[in-house]
Design a protein that fits this description.
heterodimer; A: about 260 residues; alpha/beta; two-stranded antiparallel ribbon; 13 strands; globular; B: alpha/beta; Rossmann fold; 2 domains; 7-stranded parallel sheet; 5-stranded parallel sheet
Chain lengths: ~260, ~350
Amino acid sequence: MKIVVCVKQVPDTKGGVKFNPDGTLDRGAMLTIMNPDDKAGLEAALRLKDEYGAEVTVLTMGLPKAEDVLREAMAMGADKGILVTDRVLGGADTWATSTTLAGAIRNIDYDLIITGRQAIDGDTAQVGPQISEHLDIPVISYANSIKIEGDSVVVQRQYDDGYHMVKAQMPCLVTALSELNDPRYMTPGGIFDAFEKEITVWGRADLKDVDDSNLGLAGSPTKIAKASDKVRKGAGEKVALEADEAVTYIMDKLKEKHVI
Amino acid sequence: MNKMGLEEYKGVYVFAQQVDNELSGIAFELLGKAKELAADLSTDVTAVLIGSGVKGLTDQLAEYGADKVIVVDDPELKDYRTEPYAHALSSVINEYKPEIVLVGATAIGRDLGPRVSARVATGLTADCTVLEIGDFPINPIPNQEQKHNQLLMTRPAFGGNTIATIACPDNRPQMATVRPGVMQKIEPVAGAKAEVIEYNPGFTPDNKYVEILEIVKEVSDVVDIMDAKILVSGGRGMGSKENFKMLQDLADVIGGTVSCSRAVVDNGWMPKEMQVGQTGKTVRPNVYFAIGISGAIQHTAGMEESDIIVAINKDDTAPIFDVADYGIVGDLNKIVPKLTEALKTVVK
C-alpha cells in the first residue's frame, strides 16, 4: 500500500503567542512546528505501515525551510519526502494550494492520502476536501480512527453529536483529527537516517495537469481586503472587593441591566 | 481562474442543514444574516434544502426568512455523505446561479463547502464571523477597478490572534462557511410561506459514494451551551471537579447553564461539549460569568460577543478583565456561594 501524507509547517500559535510592543503578532519570534492535525495524520499512516506494511510519502508545499517538517516526518518513520516550492506558488489561498498539491500528487502512485483536518494558522479545514475533488476521489473528513479492509478504508467519521463508521474504496482521501492518536517521537536512529535521505524538490514545472491561472496569489479566487491584529473589546470596570461587597456589586449590576 | 459572467449570478442562498429531518440551528442563523445581505443587494433569500423526505420543513424555513426554498429530495440523501450532497448543492449552484452561498461551519458544512467550492471553481472563506456588503478594494487604488456590492467576509486566523477580511471579486458564487452561534436568527413570522421549487439533478452512485456502516449518536441530555441565555463558566481557577457544584448551584438559581474553559476539559473536570473558545463553542449569551478563567485569547474568542461579561478572578492581571464589563478581583470560593444565596432571595 502507498500512502501520501500532506503536512504543513505552521507558526506555533498554541504554545506561546508573542506580541510586539505595539500589540501586533511577532511572527518572527514564534517557533515553527509540524501542524498538529497533520502530525496525527502522519502517525495514523505510520501505524498503518506498522500493521499492514506501506510506503509513506510526506508532501509539503512551502518555503525552502519547510524541508524541516519533512526531515521530522522521516525521522518519525516516513519513507520519502517531497517539497513543492516555487515563487509562483506563493500567496496561494486554499483553492490554489489544493490545485498545487493535487498537481504534485498526480505524479505519485497512491492508495490513500491523509491530510490533517485543518492547520492552526489558517483554521480553514478546506485543503483536504478540495484536493480530493481535484483528484476525483472520495473524501472522509474528521477521522477519529482509520482501518484497512481489503481495498477499502473504514473510518470513524466524527460529528458534533456522535459518529458514523464509513467505508470508502481506495484511492481515497481522509482528513485526520488531532484526537486520532498521540504521535510518536523521532528516534535518534531515525533522525540520523532522515538527514541521510534525499528530499525531492519540485517546482511549478513538476506539477501535472495544472493551469497557471489556478496557482499562487494570482490564481487565488479569494483576496485579502484587509488584515489586522484583533481589536479586542475594551475593558469595563475592575474592582477589588471582599466577598460581601463583591456580591452587592454584582447584584447591583445585574439589577441595573434588568437581568434580575 | 476563468472569469465568469458575474452579472448572471443573483440572490443569496443558504444551505439549510438538516440532520434526521430536523433543521439545524445554523440554518436559521444563516437565514437571518442572508436576509440582511439580500436587503443590501435588493435581492431575495433562497434556502437549499437537501435530504430525503424533507419537504415538510419548507414552511419552517419560510418563517425564518426564506423567500424561496429549493428542495433536493432523494433517497440517496438520507444521511449526510459528501458526494451526493456535494452533487446536489453544486448542481443547484450551476442551475440557479446564486451570487452568494452561505454554509454553516459545522462538521457537515466544513466538509461540504470545500468540496462544492472546488467543483464549481470558486473561492470559499472558512469560519466567518462577520459578513457584510461593501467595496473591493475597500479603499480605491489607482489603476484598479473598485468593485461594489461585494461580499466582505471577516474571519479570525492564527488561533484568534488576527482577523482578516476576504473578498471573492472575480468568481461566483461568493461562498463562505459561517461559524455557528454568531449570526442572529430573526423572530419567526408565523404562517409565512416561501415559493417551493423541487429540483433533482439525478444521483448515480459511483466510487465516491461512501458506505455508512453504522451511525452512533452520543446522546447527551445536557443543554447546548450555545442556546443558553446565561452561562456560568468555570476555568482552571476552580481548582477541582468538585468545585463545579458551586457553579451549578449558581446556574440553577439564575436559570443558567454551566460551561467551562479548555483547561477544565483537559483536566477531565467537564465534558468537551461544555467548552467555550476557539477549539470549543462560540457563545453569545445575555450574561457570561467567567469564574476562575484567566481569559487567554483562545477562550475570549469564543465568548467576547456576550452582552454582559462578569469576571471573578483572584489575579488582577488576568486578561479576562480586558474583556469583562464587570471585573471583580477576589476569592471565587467565598463570592460564588454568597452570590447564590443573595440571588435566591431575589429570584422567584
